[in-house]
Amino acid sequence: MAGAAQGPAAAPVVAPVAAQDAAPRGGFSVWDSAAVQPEWVGKPAPTAAPAVMVAAPNTNDLAGGARLVESAPIRFERIQDAAKEKSSSSATSDGLRFELTPYLWFASIDGNVTIGPATGNVHEAFGELLSDLDGAAAAHLEVWYGKVGVMLDGLYMSLGADSTLSNGGPSVAVTTSFQMFQSEGFLAYRIYEDPTTGRFEPFHVDLYGGVRYTRLETHLSGAGAGAIGLTGDLDNVNDWFDPVVGLRVKSGLTDWLSLGVRGDIGRFDIGDAARFTYKTTANLQFHLFSWLSIDAAYQVYGLDRQRSAGAQTVGFDGIMYGPILGVTFSF
Predict the structure, then answer these.
(1) What residues have CB less than 8 Å from 315, skipping those under 6 apart?
(2) Following DSSP, what letter does each residue of 142-167 receive, concatenated?
(3) Is 0.85 topped by the overall pTM?
(4) Which residues constitute the domain of residue 246?
(5) Are both 37 and 182 inside the same structural domain?
(6) Pair type for strands 234-252 and 203-221
(7) Does the residue 72 lie in any domain?
(8) In this structure, are residues 262 and 281 in contact, taking their beta carbons and an 8 Å threshold?
(9) How many folded domains does the chain comprise?
(10) pLDDT for the residue numbered 84
């Protein structure tokens, strides 16, 4: 038949269905055979087609260049790749979206610490941290509505270790224990998104800002405490708020893997806030299901803060760094 492409005998014919198609007559539908393109035989129709119809090849010619096609075809309205549907709906949906990630941060510590009148260097490698760690727990929660989101994070860590401190003279051995609780509350806005990329994670850029609260409890004891100017055990509770601003970029690399990088900074030195603080994280997310992912990340947290309070002074200038393992539940 002129104007119609013929595929292999077993191949179905796929063709666009025009809006003005006649109503089915006696179990048949009428359409214009001239609309069939050779490259459409046995393949999905172009994205621009409003609909496609799949029919068996046993058709009949009609006068005027039209054909009768057996009805009971499989009809698809605007077929799209499932990955794009997921990307678009996950990012532009007007409904609430939640992501909850319990995680563990295997952090090493390196820096200078001030306790009372004494100063010293602290270096806690990952292996030492495991033996000195008394307890740890952490979780991250995100709630999004359209382009606006809230990011919450909570971290608890308890360490006990033997340290050496000096007050300008010989170093003395003391026993120290630290308990740190840190929480974050950020308001985020999605400033850019490409919903055509990534199956579970479209490429997007988020701007966020808020506060990071830190509470540090320090206990120091030992027979040599008097040699560094302490009259007894030191028990100190120190807490403060750091205003921070940051940026996050995330993108799907494959259907099952995405990469996210975020960084924030605070350099305000307002009230009890740190003179300088920052946090950077690079995260690989392995998507097992639409609702479950495994996270493997690396994080660096830097802090420079010291407030003078005589014998109760506690200060730290250094970094915490190490890998993170977590599980993300999306709903």
Answers:
(1) 113, 114, 305, 306, 307
(2) EEEETTEEEEEEEEEEEEEEEEEEBS
(3) no
(4) 84-330
(5) no
(6) antiparallel
(7) yes
(8) yes
(9) 2
(10) 44
